[in-house]
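Worked example 4.2. Below are the chains of a multi-component assembly; read each line carefully before continuing.
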Amino acid sequence: MANLLEIENLRTYFEENGSIVRAVDGVDLSVSETEVVGLVGESGSGKTTVANSLLRILPEAGKIVAGRMIFKAINIRELSEKEMQSKIRGTEISMIFQDPQVSLNPLFTVGEQITSVLKLHQHIGRKEARAKAINLFRKVEVSDPESRFRSYPHELSGGMIQRVTIAMAMSCQPSLIIADEPTTALDVTIQNQVLNEFKNLISEIGVSVLWITHDLGVIKRVCDYVNVMYAGTLMEQGAVETVFENPLHPYTHGLLGSNPIQYRPKSKIPTVIGELREIPLQGCKFYPRCPIRNEDCLQETINLREVNENHRIRCIRAEDAEALLRSRNHDLQGAC
Amino acid sequence: MSLGRYALRRFFGMAPVFFIVLFTVFLMLHLIPGDPAKNILGIMATPERLEQLRDALGLNEPIYKQFYLFLAQLGHGSLGMSIRYKAPITELIFSRLKVTLSLVIMSAVFCVIISLPLSLWATKHRGKAPDYAVRVSSLFIFSMPEFWTGLVALNIFALRFGLFPTRGWGVGLLDNLHHLFLPSLILGLFLTALVTRALRSDMLEVLRKEYIQTAKTYGFSDRTIYLKYALKNALLPTITVLGLNLGWLLGSTVVIETVFSLPGIGAMLLDAVIVRDYPLIQGISLIFALAIMLNNYVVDMLYGLIDPRIYR
Amino acid sequence: MHKTTIGTIMSRYIVPFFAGEDTTRWETLKNFIKNPNSKAGLIMIGILTFVAIFAPLIAPYDPYRQNLSESLNPPSLTHPFGTDLYGRDVISRVIYGAWIAVKICVIGIGIAFIIGNLAGALSGYYGGWIDAIIMRIVDSIMSFPFLVLVIAIMAIFGPGLKNLYFAIAIVSWCQYARIVRSKYLSEKEEEYVRAAKAIGFSDTRVIFGHLMPNSIMPTIVYASLDCALVILLAASLSFIGVGAQPPTPEWGAQIAEGRQFLQVAWWVATFPALGIMYAVIGFSLLGDGLRDLLEK
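Applying the procedure described above to all three chains together yields the following structure tokens:
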């Protein structure tokens, strides 16, 4: 069965003050029907740029310089802007944003905003759109949908607005939803709630989701498959259980270790040192921060290689690393 | 609170300002150094005439009583008598109101017609030739003194080429529009320079906002985004600019009406200054101030209509 | 006492002007100079000020000297801008006009700047009835069209350049007060103000030493743009006869004089107009540049 979405070797570069920033530098990613695929990485890793490239809403300084994005057997990189507007955006692929308060227009009611989307893509009249919208509100558990319909964004709480944006994203029955940190900006107390509601909706409707986040806990709860991204490339990818049980890339180790939620019982928390900074032009991008590096790591390009079934990493030292890290943890464990 | 309550609250909030404005206008007669009557009638005036004038102006009464009389007069809807024209000031102003009003309205119309498409065009092609062209020409037009531009236009289009009448007011609507064309074009151009700058920079700022990105994600065309979403958001600060400039616009009517010999209120003010018809100066100043206060009020209400965050 | 005052002025007002919050003083200055707006504006106003101050040395003729036999001569080598009705050299008059324009800006806006900053500071800092009174006065003055109010003032006190400065100051200070007040209102609650008060600094010291340095920049930006407006305003006033009186070579007055023979002797009215345009463009660019600097 062909995948719903197949991204091949995507490269998106930005021009900033004369120099080129390689925000996405060779990403291969796929999403199949009814699958929830996670894209995880720290800020600056390029995950949002992948989403923007997919919908082709990059800012002026950004350009897709290479790669193919095959969605339902069509390379959407080659579609015209008009075709993107009418056939893809909001209707086949829709997106949910991080900060709910700023993602809606403050001068229009939420009802107006969702009905305008419905009217645009489904070509229905006002009354029909209103009825549909209120139904959608009910479905996403927006309380008192009729009066919420007439409210302005600033009158609603963060959680409520996010439910509205979820409703908007689902309104035209897309095949793929891109969720860009949908719960990150919400109050901790309702993060869980909105997350659960969204998760149930996804399985109920059977839509595919590309879930972008920096939070591994969310990935574990919601996703079937995970891609770990660093500095524009994927470092590790595989089924969620596999990767979480047996992370092979040093970066993934670090991410898992630095999470407050412990995935490895009895291990001391090793953290990822430093921040995203100088990236070597050759070899492994993670080199400056990697705890198990050696000079081999700076050789030519390092490719993704299949380690197990459905589990790939971009590292040449992973097997040695495993032993090394296990022993280190063992030492630390002794020190506890 | 609802829009209605907000409207009332703002209306009554104007009261203290209104009072001070009245007081300021009242002061105009009394701040004149020396004897106002002598000032008005000149050195050659006889003592009887001076005394007559002082009586007429109520200058012999104590000050608080004068203010009371002034307010009472206002309460009856009268602004006093003009010394020069020997007619009630309210009548004088009213008879010339339509000239000045038409001038102001037509200038605003010109402004909107020119600046709206121009700034949208500049925003769309930001950073490229059209944008620079618009910004540079705005700056140039802004820097030209409108009386000089008016003179030049008058000389070229009216005197030299005879396309427009050179002075005065016409008969009938079409003729009046003909007379108004050049003066309102000049004023409108200046307004355009201001508004285009404001609108363009506001549009650019709005276009950077998140919700514009969201709209793009949903597949709305650039055109829809510009006209429906971005414009409404940018309209807000632009209305402020337009509203703030009514003061300037009213002031400019004085100059433009003089250059084009239009029988409006502004030209009358100037005449009043030359002959020292202080009651008339007071009356016109008061009317202008009231117009601006009213204008500010309307702008506030428009704001509330467009941006629900203000009153809800 | 004097030494510390100078020290305070230097450290609070001059040095921060060159050093932003996290940039070094050179960077800020460099940014300012690199900005095309401020570059052009600075050069233009620099030339204007130079010409204005050295007018007596630069102008080839005495701007008041009449020579009726040379009335209304077109531009030539001896009179680059031609002569006016009374045979006076136009270029000299335009040059002296620059001096008058600069005087109007400095005195008129200078006074407005000082009054406005003080009023806004008191209003923003103390709030309460001081604020209420000052703001009501500001609102009232701003309810009149600038030109009309100035005309009224000139009508009361008489025409002439001296009264013009005064009238401009009375009408202009309001906007400065508003800007300063809103800045104070937002800064009042900041940490450094509370810290200063906690130490026991007197109100005056907090206002002038701490709050004012932060609020002065926006007013300087506005002052630059205001200069442009004031030059236009003064010219309009002189044109209609209530500002500078003839034979003062104020630009607006010159245009009024050249009005009747625009067709036959365009140079009499046009060169002063160009002078106005130059000054206004210069100040506008400077103001834009300063504003970019402020907003970065």
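Take a moment to check your reading of the output against the notes. Residues 100-173 of chain A form one domain. Confidence is low (pLDDT under 50) at residues 260-271, 330-336 of chain A.
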